[in-house]
Design brief:
Structural class: alpha+beta
Shape: elongated
Distance between the termini: 132 Å
Strand content: 25-35%
Number of strands: 16
Number of helices: 2
Radius of gyration: 44 Å
Strand order of the largest sheet: 2-9-8-4-5
Largest sheet: 5 strands, mixed
Length: 298
C-alpha cells in the first residue's frame, strides 16, 4: 500500500515539465515572423510601384494626340446645315450657304482653307453623279465670310432623301442636313377622247420663266388668255412667268376631238428660260467693318 501512494508534488512537476517542453518545441521567434511580414509588405508595395510605372509608360507611349481645341477660336456654320442635322424640302436644287462665324460677335479666329461636300442617297455616295457649284471656299480669319453652294441631283434620285455633309479644313468640323428635292415646276394636260378642249395646267414651286411651244396642227390655245396674247403674231409660242406656289390653266382647243393628248410629249413643249432668284443681303451693323462675301439665299 505504501508503494502505491502517489506523490502529488512529483506528478505536478512532471506535468509542468512536459508542458514547458511542448511550448518550447512549437513556438516561433517573434523576430522571424515580423521579418517575413515586412518582406511581404515590401513585395506588395514594390509590385504596385512597378505596375504603376509600367501603366504610366504605356500611357505616355500610346496616349491619343491632344486634339485641337476649337471651341473658342473656330466657327463653321450654315443657314441650313448644322452639327445636329435637319430635314428640309427644296425645289429643283439644294441651295445653302456656309459661314466662318456664328453671329456678328463670334467670328472664327482660325482660317477656313477649304471644305468638302459629300452627297448620299439612301446611304449610297452619289457625289460624283451630282453637279456641285460654289463660290470661294477659303475664308480669312477675323473677317465674316460666306460661300454659296448649289447642288443639282439627277432626276432619278429626287424621290429619295438626299443627305448632304460638309467638312471644313484644316480644323475639322462637320455639318449635315437631309433634303427632299421636288421639281421647281411642272405641267399636266387634262384630256380624253371626245373632248373639244384640253386643259393645260402649269404650276411652279419656285419663281420661274417658261417658254411654252404648242403644235399648231393639233392644238389652238384660247386667244383670250393673258399669256397667249403675248405670243408673237403667227408663232406658236409664248412666255409664261409664275411665282412660287402659283399655277395657271390654259384651255387648248383640239383640231381633232378624237385624240387624247394627255401623254403626248410633242403636242406641248416647255423650255426653262430662267429660275428667278431673289438675292438677299444680310444687314451689316454699323460697328462691323468686315467685308462679307456675297451670298445667294436659299
Amino acid at each position: 500500500m505504501k508503494d502505491n501512494l502517489i506523490n502529488d508534488n512529483e506528478l505536478l512537476v512532471e506535468e509542468l515539465a512536459g508542458t514547458e517542453e511542448e511550448e518550447l518545441k512549437f513556438r516561433r521567434p517573434k523576430k522571424e515572423i515580423n521579418k517575413k511580414r515586412l518582406l511581404i509588405v515590401l513585395f506588395i508595395i514594390l509590385g504596385i510601384v512597378v505596375a504603376g510605372a509600367l501603366s504610366f509608360a504605356a500611357y505616355m507611349i500610346f496616349k491619343p494626340e491632344k486634339g485641337y481645341d476649337d471651341s473658342a477660336a473656330f466657327y463653321f456654320s450654315s443657314d441650313l446645315l448644322s452639327e445636329e442635322g435637319g430635314e428640309f424640302v427644296v425645289y429643283d436644287t439644294i441651295d445653302f450657304n456656309v459661314y466662318n462665324y456664328a453671329d456678328s460677335l463670334r467670328v472664327s479666329k482660325e482660317p477656313v482653307t477649304d471644305f468638302t461636300v459629300r452627297i448620299k442617297a439612301d446611304g449610297k455616295d452619289i457625289t460624283t453623279k451630282t453637279d456641285i457649284s460654289m463660290g470661294e471656299r477659303a475664308m480669312a480669319p477675323n473677317v465674316r465670310s460666306g460661300c454659296a453652294v448649289s447642288v443639282s441631283v439627277p432626276e432619278k434620285y429626287r424621290s429619295k432623301v438626299i443627305d448632304v455633309t460638309v467638312t471644313s479644313s484644316p480644323v475639322q468640323k462637320v455639318i449635315t442636313a437631309s433634303f427632299k428635292v421636288l421639281p421647281a415646276w411642272g405641267y399636266t394636260i387634262n384630256d380624253k377622247e371626245g373632248n373639244v378642249c384640253a386643259d393645260l395646267v402649269v404650276y411652279a414651286n419656285k419663281d420661274v420663266s417658261l417658254e411654252l411651244i404648242w403644235d399648231s396642227e393639233k392644238l389652238v390655245p384660247d386667244s383670250t388668255d393673258s399669256y397667249i396674247r403675248t405670243a408673237e403674231a403667227g408663232k406658236p409660242k409664248c412666255i409664261i412667268e409664275l411665282t412660287s406656289g402659283t399655277s395657271v390653266t390654259i384651255p387648248m382647243f383640239k383640231l381633232d376631238p378624237t385624240q387624247d393628248y394627255t401623254k403626248d410629249k410633242k403636242a406641248i413643249v416647255f423650255n426653262l428660260v430662267k429660275n428667278a432668284v431673289t438675292e438677299k443681303e444680310e444687314p451689316v451693323e454699323a460697328e462691323d467693318t468686315a467685308t462679307e462675301t456675297k451670298e445667294v439665299s436659299a
